[in-house]
Amino acid sequence: MKCPFCNQDNTRVVDSRPVEDTNSIRRRRLCDVCGRRFTTYEKVESIPLTVIKKDQNREQYDRGKIQAGILRACYKRPIPVEKIEEMMDAIEGEIFNTEEKEISSTRIGEIVMEHLKELDAVAYVRFASVYREFKDVSTFMDELKKFMN
Question: Which family does the record assign (predicted)?
Fold first, then answer.
């Protein structure tokens, strides 16, 4: 590993520990040349995942898109950011544990809704109203009735 300060190759690991709730390892390193310390994170490289959209177009998986949808659903709700991050990690874990190279956006939406249902009812309904594209109030009420049962 090259030192980010002096660009030398002579660095060594001083401390190594797993990062909570993620599949990565935090390493503190020391440069033997300049003596400065820096941190690196090591993460398992995952298989590139392709998302099949409703119109059959394919695009690269983007965590940010799911996170943006969840944050919109949780807007002004009493949900700690840590809980949202934990849920994002769980959703991403479930998506990547399928070990498939492609996944439909429909399946991703269902996974997100399962997790939101457990987290917050209002956030779930908000996400479902956009995801399911309710045409009228009766379809919206049908979804609410499913949730209430």
Answer: Belongs to the NrdR family.
Question: Bridge partners of 40?
Answer: 27
How many angstroms separate the CA atoms of 33 and 35, rounded?
Answer: 6
3-state class of 107 per DSSP? Answer: helix
87 shares its domain with 28: no
pLDDT digits (tens, 9 = 90+) for 38-95: 999 887 766 689 999 999 999 999 999 999 999 999 999 999 999 999 999 899 889 9
> Which secondary-structure segment (H or E) carries 103?
strand 102-104
Residue 5 lies in a domain: no
Whole-model pTM?
A: 0.65
Contact 45, 86 (CB under 8 A): no
Give the gyration radius of the chain's Cα atoms.
21
Give yes or no: residues 26 and 57 share one domain.
no
What pLDDT digit, counting tens, does each position of 100-112 carry?
899 999 999 999 9
How many CB atoms sit inside 10 A of residue 66's CB? 20
Element (H, E) at 30: strand 24-31
Residue 20 maps to a domain: yes
Please report which helix (H) or strand (E) contains residue 101, including its range: none
